[in-house]
Specification:
Elements lengths: L1 H19 L7 H10 L5 E3 L5 E3 L4 H5 L8 H4 L18 H9 L7 H7 L3 H7 L8 H4 L24 H8 L2 H9 L6 H5 L12 H9 L3 H6 L5 H7 L2 H5 L5 E9 L15 H8 L8 H14 L5 E9 L32 E6 L5 E6 L3 H8 L2 E2 L9 H12 L2 H47 L1
Parallel strand pairs: 3-5, 4-7
Antiparallel strand pairs: 1-2, 3-4, 5-6
Helix pairs in contact: 16-17, 18-20, 19-20
The chain binds heme C (9 copies).
The site of one heme C (HEC) has 20 residues, from helix 12, helix 13, helix 14 and helix 15.
Length: 448
């Protein structure tokens, strides 16, 4: 009988150890570190006076993706003789994280290479003590496979982008992730994880939307004439976050390659020139904007800077309040009416050194003149200047599908010819006024 109990006991022990088998057996060296470090409440003070917790759970480490990596692969600068007996020196938590993140390079070269070009890395190079390095998004001692779907509350971005996370967790995608636990995209599905760029830079986010929602170009074309053009000039949340406030962003782009301009290194000029052009400090008027552009281009060593209009939502939070499709903006008049609200707020932007936009506000009256001036590229059908045609378009929309097709084609043709005419007219006006400004300033210089 006693033997039987011993046998059962033996089986139980065997069972327990095979339950562990999912995590691997750790080497002596790891167990030696963990002998001291798997103690609740172990901590130390940094030289800055912060508390650095030092407890590592053996169990969690054993189940982590790094369970075959030895402590010393990453912690290669510990003094094996003195460690644990003499006090350690850690300048600050931040210094420690930055220093430790360098250890990832030896095994994850690809990720490190990508990460270097992100907005976060640029912020750190610029001295930010808040932007994330590797260890802010990954806990090396507990890291799980990326194949396991991260529960909402463990998404690493949440800690720092709290407001956006809150909005996201209640929008279509966040809810989808909560409800089904799987398919709803998380932050990195739209922004990527190691190639994160400033959100309004380039088309990466839009392209990611379209990667998942493959049919959008076709499905929108059913009711939205020239959907591709609308997609180019309207950021998706403008229509899909129905409660958002909208505005026009006049992006400065390169006249030749049409890419967004990035503020030059060294002595920045966007803010300086915008400040000096905007005399009342109440947003640039049409004339002030012209002056600004002229000055900017005079100092510019590259190609000419021109403007490219885009509708977007006003805050990061609003970009993450996407609603189900039945609530999306379908009413053309939201944009195509005289005095439509999205066109009442205008900003001029250039991409800063880290890619995030530097902004300066512009008077709304500017829009109707410059859109026609030819200096604003790819942003044309603004309600206030083209009311008649756009009303006509609305009529087409209400008159049904057949008319949409026929009407759309006609309208586009009409649009084109009228647009070309208007463009030419306004363009020459604009050139003229620019010329005037130039000759005026020339006269002034001569006069001195
Ligand atoms: C004898 C117990 C003991 C052992 C064994 C031990 N540590 Fe420590 N460790 C400590 C103590 C105590 C501190 C805090 C020292 C202080 O208060 O300044 C510490 C601090 C640390 C720190 C933070 C400060 C620093 O020096 O970077 C790291 C990282 C660390 N240990 C990793 C390890 C690793 C990896 C191993 C195995 C190679 C290990 N420890 C083995 C006791 C130990
Ligand atoms: C894959 C690399 C890697 C491995 C393997 C690793 N660590 Fe770490 N460890 C780090 C990084 C990175 C940090 C800094 C975390 C941060 O930014 O605070 C760290 C921090 C620590 C700290 C300070 C407390 C903390 O959590 O920040 C201790 C103690 C520590 N490690 C002990 C260990 C021990 C013991 C082992 C082995 C059982 C181990 N580490 C294995 C990368 C690693
Ligand atoms: C801003 C947060 C963030 C930072 C910073 C970050 N990562 Fe990641 N990382 C993620 C997320 C989220 C995933 C999983 C989802 C994915 O790949 O889209 C991931 C996945 C990974 C993976 C597994 C999948 C793959 O792509 O190979 C590795 C390895 C990795 N990261 C290493 C690193 C290293 C090394 C650094 C530092 C150079 C780093 N990460 C910096 C968020 C981050
Ligand atoms: C000594 C090599 C080594 C170092 C150094 C190292 N890792 Fe790893 N890492 C691994 C291995 C091995 C895996 C498991 C990969 C696998 O099986 O696909 C892994 C997996 C990961 C994963 C999960 C990948 C996945 O496929 O799900 C992440 C995230 C990760 N490491 C981040 C880091 C970070 C952050 C650092 C720096 C603090 C770091 N690693 C340092 C070897 C290393
Ligand atoms: C440790 C804190 C931290 C973590 C974690 C973090 N970020 Fe950031 N992030 C920042 C800081 C600080 C900035 C600069 C301030 C700002 O623009 O909000 C920033 C900026 C950004 C920007 C540029 C903002 C713009 O104007 O376009 C994007 C996009 C971004 N983060 C996305 C993410 C994503 C996605 C994740 C998760 C994969 C993440 N961040 C994780 C701190 C963090
Ligand atoms: C002018 C406003 C507008 C813009 C811009 C817009 N959408 Fe939509 N979208 C809608 C409306 C309205 C619906 C609902 C159509 C209906 O009644 O079925 C919709 C439907 C959808 C749907 C549901 C499935 C489908 O195909 O009908 C998805 C997904 C979607 N849009 C994604 C996007 C993406 C991604 C972008 C940016 C590339 C975008 N939308 C730009 C207004 C817009
Ligand atoms: C469905 C795709 C999608 C998801 C998921 C998503 N974002 Fe975004 N994010 C966007 C879009 C679109 C913008 C606005 C881009 C623009 O200017 O048009 C944006 C903008 C941002 C910005 C810049 C905000 C600003 O002030 O301009 C940050 C930071 C950001 N997102 C972080 C996050 C974080 C953190 C998460 C997860 C909690 C997340 N995003 C999830 C699509 C997404
Ligand atoms: C990783 C894939 C993925 C990405 C990236 C993504 N979505 Fe989604 N989206 C989904 C899934 C999954 C759903 C929920 C199921 C469904 O309705 O198709 C969804 C739902 C939606 C819906 C609601 C559709 C409805 O039927 O009511 C809209 C609108 C939408 N997404 C727009 C966007 C926009 C805009 C972007 C980019 C800013 C984007 N999505 C990026 C996967 C994605
Ligand atoms: C969220 C704002 C918004 C909504 C909603 C919207 N549009 Fe537009 N639309 C624009 C903007 C901005 C342009 C300017 C594009 C350009 O010419 O650069 C435009 C351009 C156009 C053009 C000119 C296309 C061309 O080929 O030059 C037509 C036609 C048009 N819209 C019709 C409609 C109709 C019909 C609806 C409703 C079904 C609608 N739009 C809904 C903002 C909107």
């Amino acid at each position: 009988m006693k033997d039987f109990f011993v046998f059962v006991f033996f089986l139980l022990v065997l069972g327990a150890s095979s339950a562990f088998a999912e995590g691997v057996e750790l080497d002596e060296a790891e167990l030696a570190c963990l002998k001291c470090h798997d103690k609740a409440g172990l901590k130390m003070k940094t030289e800055k006076g912060e508390t650095l917790p030092l407890s590592i759970s053996t169990q969690a480490f054993r189940e982590s993706m790094h369970n075959k990596t030895s402590c010393e692969d990453c912690h290669d600068n510990l003094d094996s003789k003195e460690h644990g007996k003499e006090p350690s020196h850690v300048a600050s938590k931040r210094e420690f994280s930055l220093e430790m993140s360098k250890s990832c390079t030896s095994c994850h070269k690809e990720n490190v290479k990508l990460y270097v070009d992100t907005v976060h890395a640029a912020l750190i190079r610029d001295g930010s003590d808040k932007a994330p390095t590797c260890s802010d998004c990954h806990n090396s001692h507990t890291v799980k496979s990326v194949k396991i779907v991260t529960p909402l509350e463990q998404i690493p971005c949440a800690r720092c982008h709290e407001d956006i996370f809150k909005a996201y967790s209640k929008d279509v995608h966040g809810l989808e992730r909560v409800a089904k636990g799987k398919t709803g995209p998380q932050c990195s599905d739209c922004h990527s994880a190691h190639s994160i760029q400033a959100a309004s830079l380039g088309d990466a986010i839009k392209n990611n939307c379209v990667k998942c929602h493959k049919d959008v170009a076709v499905s929108h074309e059913d009711w939205l004439p020239n959907a591709a053009l609308h997609f180019d000039v309207i950021s998706c949340p403008v229509c899909h976050a129905p409660d958002a406030q909208r505005r026009v962003n006049l992006r400065m782009i390169d006249s030749v390659d049409k890419k967004q301009l990035i503020e030059q290194k060294g002595v920045p000029k966007f803010e300086r020139l915008a400040q000096s052009a905007d005399q009342q400090k109440a947003g640039m008027s049409e004339q002030e904007l012209k002056t600004f552009l002229k000055e900017f281009n005079l100092e510019n060593t590259g190609n000419k800077a021109i403007l490219n209009g885009r509708l977007e939502v006003r805050s990061g939070v609003q970009a993450h309040q996407l609603a189900e499709k039945s609530r999306a903006i379908k009413d053309c008049r939201v944009c195509h009416t005289a005095g439509a609200t999205p066109f009442q707020s205008i900003v001029l932007t250039i991409a800063g050194q880290d890619g995030r936009p530097l902004r300066h506000s512009v008077e709304k009256e500017v829009l109707s003149s410059i859109t026609a001036g030819g200096s604003l590229h790819g942003f044309y059908a603004i309600g206030s200047t083209r009311i008649k045609l756009l009303d006509y378009l609305l009529l087409i929309v209400v008159s049904g599908v057949l008319l949409v097709i026929v009407g759309h084609m006609t309208a586009r043709r009409m649009f084109r010819s009228r647009r070309e005419k208007l463009k030419e007219q306004r363009h020459s006006d604009f050139m003229q006024s620019q010329f005037d400004a130039e000759s005026q300033s020339e006269n002034e210089t001569k006069g001195k």
